[in-house]
What we know:
Pfam families: ParE_toxin. With about 100 residues, the protein is α+β, with helices and mostly antiparallel strands.
Amino acid sequence: MAEIVWMVPALNELNDIADYISVSNQFAAEKLVNTIFSKIERVASHSESGKVPVEIPALSYREVVVNPCRIFYKFENGKIFILHIMRQDQELRRFLLT
């Protein structure tokens, strides 16, 4: 099983999304965060299970989806680096440039 390394920006993005959701539904925010962490644990056992994002096929990123989020990661040297988390309705290229 690969080691999971959460990058600070990804944790901040997850926190921002959860904060936004919790304003109207605390339970839904907690459920989303738990589901994301569970999904990432499964990715640690199957590092190639995520799909290649269609917007950036040249990069060695992969993504998994936990509605309403896309979670981007990179598998390198036996580690899974969680790089970005964004809402599905955001444009990826603009998101990565900010």
